[in-house]
Amino acid sequence: MTLRRGLNALAGIAGCLAISGCVAFGTSPYAPKTATRPAPPPAGLGAPGVAQRSELSREMQAYYAKITREMEARGQLRTDVAPRDAPFGQRQLVDDFVHVALYDEYTPSGRGFVARQSVSRLRRWEKPVRMTLEFGASIPMAERTSDRAEVSAYAGQLARASTHPVSVVKSGGNFHVLFVNEDERRAIAPRLRALVPGIDAASVDAITDLPLSTYCVVFAFSEGDSAVYSQAVAVIRGEHPSALRTSCIHEELAQGLGLANDYPRARPSIFNDDEEFALLTHHDEMLLKMLYDPRLRPGMTEAEARPIIEKIAAEMMAKNS
Questions:
Q1: How far is CA 166 from CA 14, 118, 304, in A?
Q2: Nearby residues of 77 by Cβ (< 8 Å), 6 or more positions away
Q3: Residue 224 contacts by C-beta under 8 Å, 6 or more apart in sequence?
Q4: DSSP label at 50?
Q5: Pairing mode, if any, of strands 129-135 and 166-168?
Q6: Chain centroid offset of residue 219 CA
Q7: Residue 19: CB atoms within 10 Å
Q8: What is the pTM of this model?
Q9: Quick one: CA torsion of 157, 22, 182, 240, rounded to 10 degrees?
Q10: How do residues 147-197 score in pLDDT, each as one tens digit?
Q11: Given the DSSP bridges, would you call strands 216-223 and 228-237 parallel, antiparallel or unpaired?
Q12: Are 167 and 159 in contact (CB under 8 A)?
């Protein structure tokens, strides 16, 4: 499930929210039974081994491992990126782009969200995207090393696909990727406010109160009413096994570039709710390239963008035929 919305934040921040993995597993008999809220860990994110994981976090790790095995047994989380059983043509490519890039699936309601499809406008980055990684104090060093390597390689793939500069930097980034366990995420509000000054309470609540059935989340922010992104924050659960962790990395970081909506007919794609594919597909790379084509501009409506999108899609399909 993906949420995309404008945020009326204290410092004129606006943005989109993309939440992935909202499947009805929350009522599963395998869900963790621990219901009490653990004591918050030390403030901030830090060195490995500083914080101890709670019983709830350990139960969640077992739960997500079981969920991942069940998904794989059903044929989900596929790692083929150009599947022969999911062909697509020019018309579908245009339709998928319009619904993924130019529609909102959710709208804000008070301090929450309502599932209501609505017309949006094209949003993307103009400045280079510089990703920084931060880890909760409980995340082991081996996982940190693996996550850094995976995100670095994927940033290169996103840059090649979009033709927009995307890289991983040690500090001073504008796209913050946070790997935290349950306890650290619930106490992460001060860090979020430091990373994105002016972030609104609804955005903070969406992260700190993330339901069990939601695997990961990304926010992309712009200033005021601008359609150009200036900051992003992705949060990935530290309890995830490698397959689900990789799926979250691929979907959230790509959605944070501007393909924020989910569309159930998009296939083969990670931009829907069925979790069939775990990795950015060839189809999805084409959507990214379309999004950053210089003939399109941030702020365009569907009516303005569609004739250009159709031309770009025709060129792409001819080149790939």
A1: 21, 29, 27
A2: 68, 71, 243, 244, 247, 275, 276, 277, 278
A3: 12, 14
A4: S
A5: parallel
A6: 8
A7: 27
A8: 0.88
A9: -50
A10: 999 999 999 999 999 999 999 999 999 999 999 999 999 999 999 999 999
A11: antiparallel
A12: yes
Three-class DSSP category at 154: helix
Q: Could you tell me which residues are beta bridge partners of residue 216?
A: 20, 236
pLDDT in tens, 246-280: 999 999 999 999 998 999 999 999 999 899 999 99
Pairing of strands 13-20, 216-223: antiparallel
Whether a cis peptide bond, with omega within 30° of 0, leads into 268 is yes
- In DSSP terms, 176 is beta-bridged to 132, 233
**Angle value at C-alpha 118, between 283 and 267, nearest 5 degrees:** 20
Helix or strand holding residue 98 (H, E): helix 90-101
Written as six digits, the tokens of 15 are 């943005």
3-state helix, strand, coil in the chain (%, to 5): 35, 20, 45
Classify the C-alpha dihedral 287-291-294-300 as positive or negative. positive
- Alpha helix ranges (H) inside 163-296: 182-186, 189-195, 201-208, 242-255, 282-291
Residue 185 near residue 53 (C-beta atoms within 8 A): no
- Other Cβ atoms within 10 Å of 173 Cβ, number: 19
Q: How far is CA 120 from the centre of its chain?
A: 18
Q: Whose CA is closest to 255, among 282, 286, 280?
A: 280
